[in-house]
Design goal:
Number of strands: 0
Radius of gyration: 18 Å
Structural class: mainly alpha
Distance between the termini: 40 Å
CATH class of the largest domain: Mainly Alpha
Order of helices and strands: HHHHHHH
Shape: globular
Strand content: under 5%
Number of helices: 7
Length: 150
């Protein structure tokens, strides 16, 4: 479903001559193809939607880091380009969970897995990544898990 949505968006953007969207969607599709190659190496037919959502989140994270660098280097033009790409990539991600929803999900997973301390953090993160791929910032979730399990 995500793959079809990407292809349709690419076609629409090309028809509308929206170069920013075309470029960003092409980057996503290129990343998708890389993930598919990785999946084939693992014996799968193609990458899962969860893998693609995680890839898109990392693309957004990379662009946020670039924005900081460009702003520090007085390159507002390049920072704006990165912000535009973030907007396009964000269209394909599911609605992000609020802080309260993230905490509630973490507490539910902790009780499901029976996590008792920091040593069980890997189990909690693994379960969160499978259930909520693309819906939360896992770096922030990691900090919250440490706080809850401490």
């Amino acid at each position: 479903m995500l793959r079809d949505e990407l292809q349709n968006s690419l076609k629409e953007a090309m028809k509308a001559r929206d170069t920013q969207t075309v470029n960003a969607v092409r980057l996503i599709i290129a990343g998708q193809k890389e993930k598919d190659v990785e999946a084939r190496g693992k014996g799968l037919e193609k990458a899962s939607d969860a893998d693609l959502l995680a890839m898109m989140q990392s693309m957004i994270k990379q662009r946020n880091e670039s924005i900081k660098i460009y702003i520090d280097g007085n390159r507002a033009d390049l920072a704006e380009k990165e912000k535009g790409e973030i907007e396009v990539i964000s269209r394909f991600l599911p609605k992000q969970m609020s802080t309260e929803e993230v905490e509630k999900a973490i507490r539910a997973v902790i009780s499901e897995t029976g996590a008792a301390g920091i040593r069980d953090m890997g189990k909690v993160m693994g379960s969160l990544k499978t259930k909520y791929a693309g819906q939360m910032d896992f770096a922030a979730a990691s900090a919250l898990i440490k706080q809850i399990l401490s």
